[in-house]
Please model this.
Amino acid sequence: KSTLYVVATPIGNLRDMTPRALDVLAAADVIAAEDTRVTGQLLKYFGISKPMVSLREHNERSMADKLVARLQAGEIIAQVSDAGTPGISDPGAQLAAAAHAAGIAVVPLPGASALTTALSASGFDCAHALFYGFLPPKHKQRCDAITSFAALPYLVVIYEAPHRIIDCLQDLHEVLGADRQIALARELTKTFETIRRGTLAELLAFVQSDSNQQRGEFVLVIDAAPPAEQTDADEHDHVLAPLVAELP
Ligand code: SAM
Model:
């Protein structure tokens, strides 16, 4: 039966591949990969040989139509990205949307994602978290984006690349202040994995002082904004006014 499988792959350590993901990749008629060379290496490691097509940001729309036609003809398609879960700051949403529109089953295979991996080790209360993904590359727009979530009572998760990590931490420090708590997760599941928590001032100094800490891939988990200080007017609205209303 034609099905689009959305398959998570490891974010570093290949042993994080799930047995079910291997079953589906082995059973698929075709694998839609972000970069066929990257996925080719993964398949080679697991001894799987399959036809692949490239589904990237710039061709996702046109390729989605072609793949839906193949699904309608009865094929099984497995979609993967270079690392982690497709559709999470990666191509995937348009193909899944096109499959839904055509009435084709979309079956997710859960596995690694830098998002959940970093959150799980952050030690923050994850009851409420906002996944922001990549911030804008330029200083002004990045500071505007940080300002947009600065006061939210939710954790905020950011993806960052090595060549921008210092600029990004400096802008977070500028907008959120030196004392906001943050967890930095670098090279998750890989040899030089670093997970460190502290204030923005501490982590900026830590990364600036060691060029090794500026290499690799990063997830930043920013603690929720502290509750705003109550003003007398707030106290009147929320505490005194209901009490007064109860008076005979
Ligand atoms: N779809 C992927 C996922 O589910 O995590 C994310 C793809 S996005 C293009 C790549 C970004 O994810 C990197 O720039 C980094 O911020 C984060 N990332 C991916 N692998 C990571 C790792 N092993 N350690 C830390 N961050 C990682």
